[in-house]
Amino acid sequence: MHQAASPAEPTGSSPGPAHQERAYDFVECPMRASAGGNKTPDDIDPTNMMPPPNQIPAPDQPFPLSVTREESKIPRAGTDKNWVYPSEQMFWNAMLKKGWRWKDDDLAPDDMTNIIRIHNQNNEQAWYEILKWEALHAKECPCGPALVRFGGKAKEFSPRARIRSMMGYELPFDRHDWIINRCGKEVRYVIDYYDGGEVNKENYQFTILDVRPAFDSLGAVWDRMKVTWWRWSS
Fold first, then answer.
1. Which of 39, 115, 127, 167 is 20 to 30 A from 89, comparing alpha carbons?
2. Is the distance from CB of 141 to CB of 182 less than 8 angstroms?
3. How far, in Å, CA of 41 to CA of 60, rounded?
4. φ and ψ at 35, to 5 degrees?
5. How many CB atoms lie within 10 A of CB 40?
6. What is the pLDDT of residues 69-84, one digit of tens each?
C-alpha cells in the first residue's frame, strides 16, 4: 500500500511477512500465542508497516486482551492463504510502540474488542471496493487479485482529498496505499478513510471509503475515466 513497485514475483517466491507466516497458529490455537511465539527482530515489517508480532501483555497493561486472530477474506499474494488480522494484544502492543499511552484514554476491555472489529471491517470493505475495480480486468486475470503489501499514509493527503478539502469537504482521517497482484502485475490502490458518523452495531461499519487505482499507469487512468463516465451517465 505504497508507491508502485516492480512486477510481482511468481506465486510462491516471496516468503511473506513473519507475522503472517505463523498467523494460523493463533487462529486455531490462541494459547500458543500467549507464549509470544517465535522471537523476531525489533523492526518494522515493510509489507504492512507494522512491528513484529507481539502477543505478550505490556508490563502496565490494565486488563488481559485476547490473542486470537481472525482470518480475513483477502488473498495473500505468493501463498494459497488469506491475510490474518492482528489480535487485540498485538494491536495494543503496536499502538504502544507508536507512542500511544493507555492512561491518556479511558479504555475498557470491550473497547479493544470493538476497535479490532472496526479495523477488520474497514479492511474487508476496502477489499470489496478493490474487487469492484478489478472486475474490469476479469478477462486478463480470471483468478482474481491478491494483496501483496500495504501501509498507512495518514499525514500524506492524496491530491483528490486536497481538492475536496478546497471545495469545503472534510479531509480523510486516514489514508492507505494497497499494492495488489493482478496475475503478475502489481497495481497500487489509494484508499481515503472518511468519518461516516455512528458505528453500525450490527457490522461495525462507520467509515466511508474512497477507493481507486492510483494514477501510476495509462491503464489506471483509463479505468478511472470509464468508471467516472458510467457514474455520470447512469
1. 127
2. yes
3. 23
4. -85, -5
5. 16
6. 999 999 999 999 999 9
- Phi-psi sector, 210: left (phi>0), alpha (psi -120 to 50), beta: beta
Where do we find the cell 482529498?
Answer: 161
Q: Which one-letter DSSP state was computed for residue 8?
A: P
* C-alpha cell recorded at residue 200: 453500525
Give yes or no for a contact between 132 and 231, defined as CB atoms under 8 angstroms apart.
Answer: no
**Alpha carbons within 13 A on the beta-carbon side of 230:** 8
Q: How far apart are CA 52 and CA 42, in angstroms?
A: 7
Residues with Cβ < 8 Å from 217, sequence gap 6 or more?
4, 187
DSSP-assigned letters across all residues of 101-125? -GGGS---HHHHHHHHHHHHHHHHH
Q: Which three cell numbers stand for residue 3?
A: 508507491
Give first-to-last CA distance, the chain, whole Å. Answer: 31
Rounded distance between C-alpha atoms, residue 212 and residue 145, angstroms: 15
pLDDT at 41: 45
Residues 230, 217: Cα–Cα separation, whole Å: 20
pTM over 0.85: no
Q: Is 94 left (phi over 0), alpha (psi -120 to 50) or beta?
A: alpha
Q: Are 175 and 192 spatial neighbours (Cβ–Cβ below 8 Å)?
A: yes
